[in-house]
Amino acid sequence: MLNQVLLFLGVCLTGTLVHAYDEEMQALMDNLHNECVGQTGVDESLIINARKGDFSEDQKLKCYMRCIFAEIGTVSKFYLKQNIIDGIRW
Fold first, then answer.
1. Which DSSP state fits 1?
2. What pLDDT score does 40 carry?
3. pLDDT > 90? residue 43
4. Which domain holds residue 75?
5. How far apart are CA 44 and CA 57, in angstroms?
6. Most buried residue, 57, 64, 69, 84, by CB count within 10 Å?
7. The total number of structural domains that make up the chain
């Protein structure tokens, strides 16, 4: 019985921590998005389409994507950081 109670509490706590992490991550991504939209002036509809896989050749969209990648640390001065790319292999 004690093991079942501990398991239940563990599941509840894990769910709470994951939910809090998701909210924190979403807030971070929202701030990053707003910062890069402000810097580039990209149209939101182009971002929405890109998320669906429809990438435009729009220069502002490209700058937005570069901004996002630079802010999360995957590019430096327009070059991919190979050590980060190597760590993402599936």
1. -
2. 93
3. yes
4. 2-86
5. 14
6. 64
7. 1
